[in-house]
Design goal:
- Belongs to the glycosyltransferase 39 family.
- The mean pLDDT is 92.
- The chain has 17 helices and 3 strands.
- The chain has one domain.
- It has helices at 3-6, 9-25, 38-50, 75-87, 91-116, 122-132, 136-141, 147-166, 170-184, 191-207, 213-233, 236-240, 245-261, 302-322, 325-338, 357-402, 408-413, and strands at 282-288, 292-298, 405-407.
- α2 (9-25) runs antiparallel to α5 (91-116), α4 (75-87) packs across α5 and α10 packs antiparallel against α15.
- Helices cover 65% and strands 4% of the residues.
Length: 421
């Protein structure tokens, strides 16, 4: 293979996706039993597959101590049914849909980055590299948890938004509303996408020579009606099985009361302001042996997360000076997915920060591109060292995020801070 062909963006993209498939899917069916929030989602999936309407009932428990998740809308769990229906009620079947959507999210993200930075080869590829070799998205792509489903629909929504803003038509607008609906029908915190979409359309319309309020309101109306329609459609099985509107409304009320009033404590709960610093990762699973252990530990790549806290302010200052639309979208996307959690009355966990991460990767990709453009050979050296540091950190922490065997000494070495234990 010639040097020119090897370094072609398409070749690099294919190699990166191949690396993602290798690392993200390796032994993803371990452990064979549900862990962390899977213990709520897997029973619900199996009852959906059986056509049991009681799985939608917030009072229902098939067995004492065996809860079903009813606290989120059903779309993510219904998609999980596909894997169980195709591959059986086992760990492979539970997790395969999430893995496929997680890997698909990488492709969507790359296309999104190309839309935002059409003149750059570096930003899309560098950002994709960071996405793949972070650790938190990998952990969630390997688990039957709703967050990777939500991330997939959120990224698709932003990609469709960019397509719509580039060339507006009512079909694209309806598709955008459909994707927004899928996001919210997976988890309610997908509402951050709604705020992002409405805000960016408003900003774009204001920049036009003549802002026509009725047209903007019509856009919002189409998006809202379509999203609401999709949300209702996600309960099609419930209504098909005889669920009433009254009981459905009561379920929505119970969901709201659960999230607004949850005061429970958890050993690994983490305050929203500490997520970017990775102060409190989450231990999802451990299997102990006499001299070794296998762990699934949800944390991010420290090199990526902590350097992102430098690139974001740098990007913010640059946006203030030049008011670049892509830069503004990155900043708004990051903040809209993170800051609203400061108002949440319930406990939080590190993985709630997952939806800010794609925007963090984009800010870092932009910063790396800036270094290459401004510093010549020094810039290339800095970028190369940085990417090698990211990869080294990924390989170092990979075993404790994927359940590989480590001695207790090796495990202890990876807990850099007491708050990580």
């Amino acid at each position: 293979m010639s040097k020119k062909l090897f370094f072609h963006p398409t070749t690099i993209f294919i190699l990166l996706i191949a690396a993602a498939v290798l690392f993200w899917s390796k032994d993803f069916s371990y452990p064979s039993q549900p862990y962390f929030d899977e213990v709520y989602y897997v029973p619900a999936i199996n009852e959906y597959l059986k056509g049991n309407i009681e799985a939608y009932d917030f009072h229902y428990q098939k067995q004492p101590g065996l809860p079903y998740d009813w606290t989120h809308p059903p779309l993510g769990r219904l998609l999980g049914v596909i894997g169980v229906a195709g591959f059986g009620n086992n760990s492979f079947g539970w997790r395969i849909t999430g893995l496929v959507l997680g890997l698909s999210s990488l492709v969507v993200f790359y296309l999104l980055a190309k839309k935002l930075f059409p003149g750059s080869k570096v930003v899309p590829l560098a950002s994709l590299f960071l996405f793949i070799f972070d650790l938190l998205p990998l952990v969630h792509a390997r688990a039957m948890m709703l967050d990777i489903y939500l991330l997939f629909f959120a990224l698709l929504s932003v990609l469709m938004l960019l397509s719509y803003l580039n060339k507006s038509n009512w079909i694209k607008l309806a598709l955008l509303g459909l994707l927004m609906g899928c996001t919210i029908a997976t988890k309610w915190n997908g509402v951050f996408v709604v705020g992002l979409v409405f805000s960016l359309i408003f900003v774009r319309r204001l920049k036009e020579k003549r802002f026509y309020l009725p047209h903007y309101l019509a856009e919002i109306g189409v998006l809202t009606l379509t999203a609401v329609g999709v949300y209702l459609a996600s309960y099609s099985q419930y209504f098909w099985l005889g669920g009433s509107i009254g009981n459905w409304l009561n379920l929505q009320k119970q969901m709201w009361q659960y999230h607004a009033g949850l005061k429970a404590m958890h050993t690994y709960q983490a305050d929203w302001w500490g997520w970017p610093l990775m102060l409190r990762p989450t231990w999802y699973f451990v299997e102990r042996f006499p001299t070794e252990a296998r762990n699934i530990y949800a944390l991010g790549n420290p090199i990526i997360w902590w350097t992102g806290l430098v690139s974001l302010p740098f990007l913010g200052v640059s946006w203030v000076v030049k008011r670049n639309f892509a830069w503004g979208l990155i900043l708004l996307g990051y903040l809209s997915a993170w800051l609203p959690w400061s108002l949440s009355p319930r406990i939080g966990f590190l993985h709630y920060y997952l939806f800010s991460l794609p925007f963090l990767y984009l800010s870092l990709g932009w910063a790396l591109s800036w270094l290459l453009a401004r510093l010549g050979k020094w810039g290339r050296g800095i970028v190369l060292v940085y990417l090698l540091a990211v990869l080294t950190s990924f390989l170092y922490f990979y075993p404790i995020t994927t359940g590989e065997r480590l001695t207790y000494k090796q495990l202890e070495e990876r807990f850099w801070f007491s708050s990580w234990k």
